[in-house]
Structures are given as structure tokens and as C-alpha cells.
Design brief:
By secondary structure, the protein is α/β, with parallel strands linked by helices. It contains 19 helices and 19 strands. Strand 18 and strand 19 form a beta hairpin. It holds the Pfam family Glu_synthase.
């Protein structure tokens, strides 16, 4: 027995080495004889290191090699800003900004005589009970923190400053006491845990709204009792007949739901200017019930509505929706065709008709799945698109009839304030809210394998997202954004963020030259100059 004890380690070691050698030989032979990968064929076994590094490259860059200001679609700094606001309701920093001030960008003009806190028009009469984390220990290896209850100010707008959508057109206008809401995210693109956490968190914060996305109104959107904008895409999910036509009966049924405050017709989306596609295997009984489609059958939705083919027909359709539902109706657009945009404004003036709000989605917007060429090249980014729409509506004297909602990576108070100054009345955020409930920007939204349980319907992955924990992060995030807007308003010398105008921001180029926004945006007059040059060239 003693002899066996002596030789056993050597036997085990030898067996392990032989096993490793056999495995390496097998892999070497497999790589050397396969015909798919030239790197593996020329460099068997060793070439696998290259593929392994490529596979984990995004994680290595995100956590080890990129600076806080690098990374897409959001740099690490902005990602952490959202996380800290949601988890700790804390946005203080130390030692100074990490922004690269040598680069071009927009800046908010500060006033020599900023507003005092008591001079701001804030409605904090109704406190909000939330939960925040406190750090007990933050060492290199160990980290301890606990969660505690906290009563916070909501930072609502005064009633007289509240934004009212459909004030003069609807039986039931939509009054909003906060300038920030959740952009369109469908159930199916996001899992039920994610949608429920968002619904409950937005309801806690109040003064905001939740856009259902084009996938229909689900019980998960309704779970927290928030204000809801129901989006209707060309697939007509949730308001369609069995034959795929628009159902006025179903639409009326949805409009009678108290939580539904408005409807949005999605003409286009910044990152997905195309029709939708959902494999039949993903069309469960539940999805089919919500979308009013057949279970197990593949869905291919068109890239535009069959119900109308020009602005006159669309405006007639909107008028009927308002008449039947009694609530505001808006449209979601991506700006690219300036001639078409001007045609819309002109018809709005001539007919006295049109939407109650226009959601301007920048080309930098996010999506669960789209094609690279559409995401990268189609549609103007929000800081170019928004002022164009604002100016065009003013040119035809219809700007006062319609509210503008800006959308496109506006996840921090400064970006929101700049958009308000450029012409927005309200701001939509999607990915910021996804980050608040745990998204780590893994870029797997289209695979149903989201590791954070956000953009997935996989039951196991969704279990990682605890609704009763994440809903408070949603509330803290939106409240922090509203507080930040009032901080910026005070710095600019105005008593409420609804008063932000273009005069409150400037643009600095890489050479240090400062321009007013009016000098650089694409106004109707500048559009006409471009057209004149094009005509002359022809």
C-alpha cells in the first residue's frame, strides 16, 4: 500500500499529461484538416488563441483597455452615471470633469446671476418613498453595501409649467409634470421582468410616461399603473383584425383604458428603418394574445402603414383616431427627406390638421435588432434633426399646435437640457432605462441571450432581474434626471427647465471658436440656399 501511495501521484500526473497531449493532438489534427478557417489550417492549435481573444475582445476593451470616455454606444463614464443615479441616487463627482474640452461640442451658457434654489419653480409638495444603496466598505477585493428606505423630492414641474399634449384637440389631453419619459420598448424585445420593473419604477417616480413600443400593450406595461403612450406600428399589433387590418373596435377598447394617455403612430425608428420580423417559434400563446396574431406563425410587418399613403390620408386617419379614442395622437419619425418634412408642415398649415406630438428619433437611436447599414447610415442624428423640425414647423406657423419629443442617446441631464434648448418639449430615453435595470451593454439584444435578463424572454436569464429591486433604480434614475435639469436651469439663470432656449447654449469647435446654435443649424432658409445651389449645378 505504501508503494502505491508513492507512485500514485506520478501515475495521476502522467495520466493528466497524456490526456492533455492527446487532446492537443486531436485539436491539432482537426485544425490542420478542416477547410473553413485558413488561420487554423496554417497555424493549428496556436491559431485558436486568436479566435479566443477575438471572442472576449469586447469585454477586454470595455473593462480593461478603454478609458472612461471611450466605448460605444455609450462610454464607460455615461454608463456609470446612469448606474450611480439609479442605485445610489448620487451624481456627485470629485476632482473635475473627464470631458475632453479640446473636442467640439455644445455647452450651456451660465448666468452671472444664477437662480437660488428657493427661486426655482419646483413642485416638491408630494414626497416619494424609494430605496437607495449605501456603501459600507469599498476595498480592492471586498465590497459591502446595504439598501435603505429614503424619502426624496420628486422635482415635478409646477402645474402652470406642465406640458399638455392635445390641449385644444382632444377630449382627454395628456398633462405631464416631468420632461423625461421612457421611449418605446416592446414586450418581447424586453422580458416581462424588465417591462414590469420599468412600469413600477416609472409609477413610483410619477410625472413621467412609458411607451409600449410597437409590440402591443401587455399586462406587464400596466403592472405599475404608470401613464402610458401606446405605440402602433405598421404591424398594428394589439389593434388589428384577424385578417391584419386596423380594428377600430380594438383601438376603442385600448383607448378606454385609463392608464393609456396617448397613442403614437410609428412611421420610422432611428436604428430600424425597416419592417419587423418575428420567427414563429417566438410567437408564444401569450405574445399572440397581446399582439392579436396567430401563435406559432412567423410575423413580417411592413415598413409603412397600408392605412394611408400620404399626409392628407394620414391626417384624416389621425383625426378619426382622436374622435374615436378622445386622446392625443402623435407620430414617430426619422428626419432625412427635408422636402417631405416641409410638405408635412405646409399641409398642417393649410388643413389645420396634424398630430398632437412628433417624436423625433435620431439616427443614433438603439434597437433590439437591425441591419448595420440601416443603423449606421440612414437618418440624421438628433442634434441635426431636432432643430430642423422645430424650424420647419415655425416657418409654417404650426409649432404651437404640436409638441416635440426628442430621442437619441439623451441619457444625462446635460444632453437633455441641450435638446430642450434646441426645440424639444419632452425627451424620450430607452437605453438609459435599460442600464438602470441592469443592462451591461453586452450587445446581445438580438440573440435572446442577454446576460442581465433585460432583453430576453429566457425564463432562466430573467430570474436574475429582481423586479422589487430594480424598480427603485428606475425611479431614482428619472428623479435624478429631473433634479439635474433644475440644477442646469438655475445655472443658466432660468427658474424652470421648460424655459431653455437656443440662446442658452453655444457650440465650440475643435479650434476653440464659439458659435450660436442659430449659426450652425439647418434652417429652412439654409435649406433653400442648398436647393438653389443644386439647381444652379444642374
Amino acid at each position: 500500500m505504501s508503494e502505491m501511495k508513492k507512485i500514485l501521484p506520478a501515475i495521476l500526473k502522467g495520466t493528466a499529461l497524456l490526456g492533455a497531449a492527446a487532446t492537443a493532438a486531436y485539436v491539432y489534427r482537426k485544425d490542420d484538416t478542416q477547410k473553413q478557417h485558413s488561420i487554423l489550417r496554417n497555424f493549428p492549435l496556436v491559431g485558436r488563441i486568436r479566435y479566443m481573444a477575438e471572442h472576449i475582445g469586447p469585454e477586454l476593451r470595455q473593462y480593461l483597455f478603454q478609458s472612461n470616455l471611450e466605448g460605444t454606444p455609450f462610454p464607460r463614464k455615461e454608463f456609470e452615471d446612469v448606474v450611480k443615479a439609479g442605485k445610489y441616487k448620487e451624481r456627485l463627482i470629485g476632482f473635475g470633469s473627464e470631458r475632453d474640452f479640446s473636442k467640439s461640442g455644445y455647452y450651456i451658457r451660465n448666468s452671472m446671476f444664477p437662480k437660488q434654489r428657493e427661486e426655482l419653480r419646483i413642485d416638491n409638495s408630494q414626497k416619494i418613498n424609494t430605496m437607495v444603496y449605501k456603501v459600507d466598505e469599498d476595498g480592492l477585493i471586498t465590497r459591502r453595501e446595504h439598501r435603505e428606505e429614503k424619502q426624496v423630492d420628486p422635482f415635478y414641474l409646477h402645474d402652470e409649467d406642465a406640458v399638455i399634449i392635445g390641449a385644444n384637440t382632444c377630449r382627454k389631453p395628456f398633462k405631464v409634470k416631468g420632461l423625461v419619459g421612457q421611449s418605446a420598448m416592446s414586450y418581447g424585445a424586453l422580458g416581462k421582468h424588465a417591462i414590469t420593473a420599468l412600469s413600477k419604477g416609472l409609477a413610483i417616480a410619477g410625472g413621467t410616461w412609458m411607451n409600449t413600443g410597437e409590440g402591443g400593450l401587455s399586462e406587464y406595461h400596466l403592472a405599475g399603473n404608470p401613464d402610458i403612450i401606446m405605440q402602433i406600428g405598421p404591424g398594428l399589433f394589439g389593434v388589428r383584425t384577424p385578417g391584419g387590418e386596423f380594428s377600430w373596435e380594438e383601438f376603442k377598447r385600448k383607448s378606454e383604458i385609463e392608464q393609456v394617455k396617448a397613442f403614437e403612430l410609428k412611421l420610422a425608428q432611428g436604428a430600424k428603418i425597416r419592417g419587423g420580423h418575428l420567427e414563429g417559434a417566438k410567437v408564444t400563446e401569450e405574445i399572440a394574445r397581446i399582439r392579436l396574431v396567430e401563435p406559432g406563425k412567423t410575423i413580417n410587418s411592413p415598413n409603412r402603414f397600408y392605412e394611408f399613403s400620404d399626409y392628407h390620408e394620414m391626417f384624416d386617419f389621425i383625426e378619426r383616431m382622436r374622435d374615436v379614442g378622445g386622446k392625443p395622437v402623435g407620430i414617430k419619425i426619422v428626419v432625412g427627406d427635408l422636402d417631405s418634412l416641409e410638405e408635412m408642415a405646409s399641409i398642417m398649415k393649410d388643413t389645420g390638421m396634424g398630430p398632437d406630438f412628433i417624436t423625433v428619433d435620431g439616427g443614433e437611436g438603439g434597437t433590439g435588432a437591425t441591419y448595420q447599414e440601416l443603423a449606421d447610415a440612414v437618418g440624421l442624428p438628433i442634434q441635426s434633426a431636432l432643430p430642423v423640425v422645430d424650424e420647419m414647423l415655425k416657418k409654417y406657423n404650426v409649432r404651437d399646435r404640436v409638441k416635440l419629443i426628442a430621442s437619441g442617446k439623451l441619457i444625462t441631464p446635460d444632453k437633455i437640457a441641450i435638446s430642450l434648448a434646441m426645440g424639444a418639449d419632452l425627451v424620450n430615453i430607452a437605453r438609459g432605462f435599460m442600464i438602470s435595470i441592469g443592462c451591461i451593454m453586452a450587445g446581445k439584444c438580438h440573440t435572446n441571450a442577454c446576460p442581465a435578463g433585460v432583453a430576453t424572454t429566457d425564463p432562466k436569464l430573467q430570474d436574475g432581474l429582481v423586479i422589487e429591486e430594480k424598480m427603485y433604480r428606475v425611479a431614482n434614475y428619472v428623479i435624478s434626471l429631473r433634479e439635474g435639469l433644475f440644477n442646469l436651469a438655475a445655472a443658466a439663470g432660468i427658474d424652470t427647465p421648460v424655459k431653455f432656449e437656443r440662446k442658452h447654449i453655444v457650440y465650440k469647435d475643435e479650434w476653440g471658436r464659439v458659435s450660436s446654435v442659430g449659426d450652425i443649424i439647418l434652417t429652412p432658409d439654409k435649406v433653400e440656399e442648398i436647393r438653389d445651389k443644386e439647381r444652379a449645378a444642374k
